[in-house]
Amino acid sequence: MSDNKKKWFSLDLGNKRKETTACGCGNAEGTCNSKQNTFGEERHKDGFDQVFDVQMGRRTAFKKLTAGLMIGAGAISTSCSLVAGDETKEKAQIDWEEQFKGNYKLMTDDEKKATIDRLTRSYQLRTGKTINMSAKNAEENVLFGYAFNISKCQGYMDCVNACVEENNQDRKSQMQYIRIHEMKDGKGFNFNEADDNYYHEVPAEGHFYMGTQCFHCDNPPCVEVCPVEATWREDDGLVVIDYDWCVGCRYCMAACPYDGRRFNWSKPEVPENEVNKNQHYLGNRLRKKGVMEKCTFCVQRSRAGKNPACVEACPTGARIFGNLLDPNSTIRWVLENKKVFRLKEDLGTEPKFWYFMD
Amino acid sequence: MNNNVIYKIIGILCVVLLAASCKHHEEEYHSITDKIEAESKDYHGISISSEEHLEGLTMIEVTENGITFRIPKRKGEIKSYACTECHNKPLDQMQSKDLKKAHWNIKLNHADENTMNCITCHDGNDMDHLKSLTLKTIDFDRSYQVCSQCHTRQFTDWTGGAHGKRIESWAPPRASMTCVNCHDPHKPHFESKWPERYNTQKVEERK
Predict the structure, then answer these.
(1) What is the pLDDT of residue A50?
(2) B80 or A15: which carries more pLDDT confidence?
(3) Which of A106, A275, B60, B165 is the most buried (most CB within 10 A)?
(4) What number of other Cβ atoms are within 10 A of residue A166's Cβ?
(5) Which of B165, B88, B174 is nearest to B128 (CA)?
(6) What is the pLDDT of residues A124-136, one digit of tens each?
(7) Which residues in chain A (317-346) have CB-CB distances under 8 A to chain B?
């Protein structure tokens, strides 16, 4: 959201000695707080030690105290100032509350409502446009599943287009959740020789097409590895990300065996008139630089009862989506009547994305 | 004697341990299929419905292979229905040179000439309806019954939901497209075309 704001306050006080070396975390700016005043101590301290177990002169202590007071006073003066406009105050208030909100996973429904209200208002203050953001929770008795018909896919890539537009993906880096692989007949699933960025008339002679995206594993390795629990599996099976809690370490990207996750290396750019204003907190709301994102089975659509954008856009009917717990659903019929398989089933990730052929 | 008892105890312990180690927690399942099976046993429907997304569409309800679902009505979408508005006399009388040509843009490209021509599906004596191979009347709204005579496998898949598309919503009640919503019955194959998108950034990155 507010991009020029740091996620956490980094109190860079007592900076007599300007350190020239880059920080251990790889960030040149020293935003990771790993360097505290250790007063020449060589021993590496962590946790509470870094904060409390610091030898401090009277002078430094006073300095820090004064600086702390000034920061607090600054924040208060912005929100209480008579000079600053109402909107500026409100913006400051929203930014402050957004800064210190908790993990979405742990929020109560009221807190969820409060944060989407703040984000909607913040967008309105910044752009003058109104978005419709939802925080709809998982529906009971729903477990989302997906089936992909390899014999039907013709490689038209209508799904990719629909996905990019629906999910407000970065146009500058041309981020795409879906990859369509063009594979040679008779070679099986050979991803080494497959082409996922072809540009010729399709379907090409002697080739077949298959799509990959986030498979929403029931035992997701990406969730296991997240050090801050910014990604988790919802009750309806969707693996989601709290973009405001993600620290951008990309462990999940490395852990995913299906290349399902994408990283924002730069600030995502979506032209204002192309922004999809029908959003969900866990879905297609606008992201910021340095966070992960991925397919959410279009949570903003699927939880409202609609098909994901890729399913809707597919002209060949290769994509089937539905509720795995409903014995009469079409997805269940496919699983029970077609010969289905999943990618890298032996890993035990239990993807909820099945492939089948006519 | 003592050894026997020890072996037995070890044996029992092994069995207990194996049984216990398979499940990490009480709520977890061996596989997603187990989970689906177990959790769908007490499925009593959901509060989400497709109705609001299907508003404004005219549909009919069909039951095939024991599965009931909705398909869009067809007659309203055919530009010149009812056909008898023009076809008011037998076909051979209409093929004279005095009358304006119609349907000139339709060229049949569906199976070969030995198998199909116009009157395989259309009824020259009753232009407002289709007909089956055994000359039974089929309504235009249920044109899938014409297709299913030959395409039996596709028909089975379609009734189950593996062939074709759902309309708008995954939620019940189910509404699916019918054959002619995607396939032109006179030329049912899909044309080849260029992909909708080419990722130039990906090319740069992989240089």
Answers:
(1) 52
(2) B80
(3) B165
(4) 21
(5) B88
(6) 999 999 999 999 9
(7) 317, 320-334, 337-338
